[in-house]
Amino acid sequence: MADNGDDEDHYRIKEGDYVVLKRGEIYKSVQILPKKKVIFEKQWIFLDNVVGCLYGNTFEIRSGGGLQLQNTKTTESPPDSKVAGTDNRNIIDDGKSQKLTKDDIEKLKDQGLKGQEIVQQLIENSATFSNKTEYAQDKYIKKKKKKYENTVTVLRPTCRILAMMYHGREPGKICHLRYDTLAQMLTLANIHANSKVLVFETCAGLVLGSIMERMGGHGTVVQMFPGGGPVRAGVESFGFPARFHETLHEFPICHLNALEAGTLDTFAKDPDAGEKESNMTAEEEEVLPGADPQGDSPEEQRMETVSADDKVQDQKKREEEKRREAKAQEKKVKQEEKQRKLAAAAARLDGRNADGLVIASRFHPCPVLLRLLRFLSPSRPFVVYSQYLEPLIECYTKLKEQGGAVSLKLTDTWLRHYQVLPNRTHPRLLMSGGGGYLLSGTTVAPEPPAGSTPGEEPAPKRQKLKATEG
Amino acid sequence: MSFVEYSEVIQDSDVAIIYLGHNSVMPVKVQHGAQTQTRYGVIRHSSDLIGQRYGSKVTCSKGGWVYVLHPTPELWTVSLPHRTQILYTTDIATITMMLDLKPGSVVCESGTGSGSLSHAILRTIAPTGHLHTVEFHQQRAEKAAEEFREHRVSHLVTVRNQDVCKDGFGVMGAADAVFLDIPSPWEAVGHAKAALKKHGKEHVHTEGVIPTVLKPTRTSTTVNTSWRFFSKAHRNASSLLPKIVSLSCCALFGMWNQSGSGLVTGG
């Protein structure tokens, strides 16, 4: 098929790509840069060799840090030795079953023996291995492999992988948001292409990135941010194409008052810029009087044949001026760009017709939620995440009082991992209370002013008086 | 109105969701001149619904009121007419994330059942993706196709009435993700492999808790044997560590390694 070439290309690793390194359950997000040293699991590696390979490949770490595509044949487990025991009644755990010492193993490692072969050596030098049951042998091999294998898999970043990574490595950065809770948020808020979503998050950009992934670059995302600027480190790790960023806007939450009052000033000149300009002119003035004692203006001096020293000095001054001018110009352009973006974001919000709201932050959600709900159309979903239950209970109560939302649900989910092996399938551990809580609901048209609605409650049953009367 | 795009105002032939109270929602096909009975009274479509904004309060004849909401897959899941046991939003959310679904994904699904998961998938993969769904029960397949038409999503989905274990999904090498929720998933694993793109992901899901502790195991071993049948490379036994999530059902996630070296763990 002709498409295969293109498809293949899409699945190959390119320089500059953001990827995720994986070993077992450990993930790390990195960017592929030439000759850049990366630490992964206490090892230094260079990622140059992975460029051009397909995503999903596993590589061996050679001594020196280079990566080599793993030959699949070598990953085959050693043929199960037929010798196995029936149970462990005669196996004594005295710590002396392994004949190889730590130093011996280090020597083997230095010799450049691959993980596979080290494991083989360990098995051969274990006195009790053949007494173990088959399952115990399997378990032993797996454990040793995990310790001595020297491989890393390179994956394309997706919401799932990054969510697992953040949850495993730095849960504090994402308010302890577990990945299945994130999945619930994305679905309950009906995140889909061609919608307009408001996001308020302090989860290092993970939530924002996940939403952008689910929107596929279609639609609009407006990020409300506290403080000076939005934190979006996580969004980079997703490796979105440039056009996705065009759909992303940001708006400082401190300006919401102004926006609602209609007094948001998006065209005012930044007072700082004004100051800088006046500083510039002052400096210029300083330079010119400085030039005066030398006589003529800088241009004229250029034409005159003056001493070399003077010429150099003038040139330096001119260059400095030019640099300062250029900087001021740059600043001005940046300032205008900022104002333009602010205006664009404000325009997106002004219609009060957003299609979804997602809140996930370390701040108390109540005030944020109540303010931002006003920017949603009626009959649109919203989701609030909180690490703790109590703030959401407050939100729930306030929403019930003020109205404007139905189908309010306060939920949390449990996640249980299972080991799945023939005849050995069982749950591994239960994670509970560790994933955070969600408040979800749907907006409805706001209530008209009080006093005009007779039907607040469903009408009581009609009394069948007529039948008994008369 | 469509299940994959919002609109503001209710129109004729829309499907709207009537919200009667907590845990009480019902779908309604909006038609000129039609009426819907609720426990709060009658709703007359022409006057009460058509032309009104989604999210408005509607007063019924007896004086009670309800809200009319824009349909979403989540509301559909709790209001659709059941033809089979369905998947609920909690599991659907996890499945959507674990399969890395996003706009443009091509997904194969079997069985369609009552279409609960199907609608959620369609919402996520729109506007550029496609869903190939297979249902071996003729009436259910027809009903599903009819609903997709009414919900204005039929351009994103192909319903096939066949047995996935015998005839597969009807596509080869095209899917980014495969989802199996059938009585004997191990029988369809081979077809799932064929339907996947070279670098796709498979998810086998089985309903119920106790009876299916066996299913992931059997399926996982079958995945290995059928894989061996399809490729020359050897499988990596230790890499088969499927992860299972969710309260109400077991699921086995796997991703076929692009170089054909066997089923590796999800993620």
Order of helices and strands of chain B: EEEEHEEHHEHEHEHEHEHEE
Strand order across the largest sheet of chain A: 10-9-8-11-12-16-13
Low-confidence stretches of chain B: 205-214, 224-267
From the spread of the alpha carbons, the general shape of chain A counts as: flat
The largest sheet of chain B, given as strand count, sense and whether it forms a barrel, is: 7 strands, mixed
Main sheet: strand order of chain B:
9-8-7-10-11-12-13
Give the count of structural domains of chain B: 2
What do we call the CATH topology of the largest domain in chain B?
Answer: Rossmann fold
Gyration radius of chain B (Cα, Å) is 21 Å
Shape of chain B: elongated
pLDDT below 50 for ≥5 consecutive residues: which ranges of chain A? 268-302
What pair of chains forms the biggest interface?
A-B, 71 and 78 residues
**Count of DSSP strands of chain B:** 13
What level of helicity do the residues of chain B show? 25-40%
What is the rounded Rg of chain A? 33 Å
Oligomer: heterodimer
Instruction: Name the beta content range of chain B.
Output: 25-35%
Return the average pLDDT of chain A rounded to an integer: 82
Total of DSSP H or I helical runs spanning 4+ residues of chain B: 8
Structure, explained:
- The complex is a heterodimer of chains A (470) and B (267).
- Chain A is of the alpha/beta class and 470 residues long.
- Helix content of chain A is 39%, strand content 19%.
- Chain A contains 16 helices and 16 strands.
- Chain A is flat.
- The N and C termini of chain A lie far apart (88 Å).
- With 267 residues, chain B is of the alpha/beta class.
- In chain B, the strands form three sheets. In chain B, strands 9-8-7-10-11-12-13 form a seven-stranded mixed beta sheet, with helices on both faces. In chain B, strands 2-1-6-5 form a four-stranded antiparallel beta sheet, covered by helices on one side.
- Mean pLDDT of chain B is 79; it is low at 205-214 and 224-267.
- At the A-B interface, helix 4, helix 5, helix 6, helix 7 and strand 14 of A face strand 6, helix 2, helix 3, helix 4 and strand 11 of B.
